[in-house]
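Weekly structure sync - notes
Attendees: PM, LS, DV (DV joined late)
Agenda: review two folding runs queued last week.

Item 1: First target. Sequence and C-alpha cells pasted below for the record.
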Amino acid sequence: MTRKQESAKAEHNGPAEEELKPNQDVNGAQGAEAGGPSEVEELHKELAETKDRYVRLMADFENFKKRALKEQSELLKYQGERLVADLLEVLDNLELALSYSSADADKLKAGLEMTHKLFVEKLGRWEIKGEAGMGKAFDPQKHQAISRVASADAAPGTIVGELKRAYFYKDKLIRVGEVVVAVSPEQPSA
C-alpha cells in the first residue's frame, strides 16, 4: 500500500483506536480498585441471582398448578361423599326396621314413617325437593301424563293421581312426575 492509500484509509476510519488498559471500560474510566469486582462483574452476578430466582419461581408455580389440578380432580372424584354418608344413615334405619319386621304392624309403620321423614330431610339438606302435583294443573314441563280419567269433581287438566312426584335439584328438574290427569266426563278416558 502506498502512503497515499494509508493516509486515505486513516482519514476514513478515524483516529487509530487505543488499546484498553486492564480495569478500564470503553469510555476510558478506571474500574474498581485493582483486584476488586468491576461493575460488569457485579451486573453479571446480579443477573445470575435474578435468573436463579426466576427459575425457582417458575418451578414453584408449576408445582402449584400440579397440586391444584390434583386437588380439583379429587374434589370431582369424591364430590358425592357427604351425600352418600347421609344416605347410609337412612339405609341403617331401613335395615333396623327390617330386623323388627315380625313386630307389631303399628310399630313397624311408625318406624317406616320416621325413616321416610329422615330421608326427606337428608334430601332437603342437599336441596333435592319433591313437588306434589295432586290438585294442581297439569304442566308438561314438570309432568308426564300416564293416563286420563273422566272426572266430574275435578276441572279438566287437573292432576287427580300421582304415581311419581316431580323432583328438583336446586332449581333444575331432575325427574318429571308421572301423573293421572282429569278430563271432562264427555271425553273418553285413556
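Item 2: Second target, run right after the first with the same settings.
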Amino acid sequence: MQLAELSWPRVQSLDKNIPVVVPVAALEQHGRHLPVFTDSMLLGEIVRRVSESIGDRALFTPLQWLGNSDHHMDFPGTLSAAPRLYIDLLAGLAENLLTHGFQRIVFLNGHGGNEIPGRQAVFELRQRHRGRDDLLLLFATYWDCARPGEGRDDLVQSRMGHACEWETSMILRIAPHLVESPASIAEVKPGFGFEPAYRGWITRDRSAPGHIGNPGSATAEKGEYLFNRFAEGVRGLLERVADWNGASWSP
C-alpha cells in the first residue's frame, strides 16, 4: 500500500502493527557516467517491485530523496542534509508515524552515507521511547538484504561500491539513456587504508572521478538479476517485521 494514495480515515483504520516503510536515498554525484539521482532511482525501483509483491502487508511512504551527502560536495549537482540535520529529519518522520499509532517502522536505505546517521536516529528514538516494548524501529540498507555476488560468477564485484558495476548495471536496466559510456570508465579500487584507525574522509580522498568499483563490467542483464535479488531480500525482511511476535527476532 502507498501512504500517498490513502485518505486520512483509511490510514486511521489500518492495523497499527503493519510495517511502515520509509524509503531514504540521496541526490548526489555518481561519477562521470551516472545521473545524480541514481540512489533514489534504484531504491524507487526496488520499492516498486517489493510493494507490488507484498501487497497490503506493508505501508510505504513516499521516498525521501534528500540524504546525508556532505562527503560528495566537491562534485557539482550534489544536494545534502548535514549529519545532525539528517538524524533529526529521520527521527521527526518516525515521531510523526508514532503519533498516528504505528508501531513498526522500517527506514529502507539506498545510500551508504545515510547509514551512520540513520542508525543513530533509530538508536536515539529507542532511548526516547524506552518505556515502550511494543515498538520495532529498524534501519536497513537494501544491499545488505541479499548476497547476489554468491549466486553469479560473472559479477566482477563481490559487494556494492559507488557508481560501480552493480549500480551501473541497474541504471542500464531501467534508464539506459542516462548512462554515459561506462565501458570507457576505469576501475577505482575500494581500498582505504589507515586501519585499525578510522580516517575522517571526503569522496575526493578516495576517488578523483567520483566512482568506486568497476562500472566497465556493467550490463542491463546483470541489473535485472540484481534488482530481483535485492527485492526478494527486502521482501523477506518486511515479512519478518510483519510476523514479529513482539519479543524474539529469531525465525
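Discussion on item 2: The mean pLDDT is 96.
Action: LS to circulate a short write-up before next sync.
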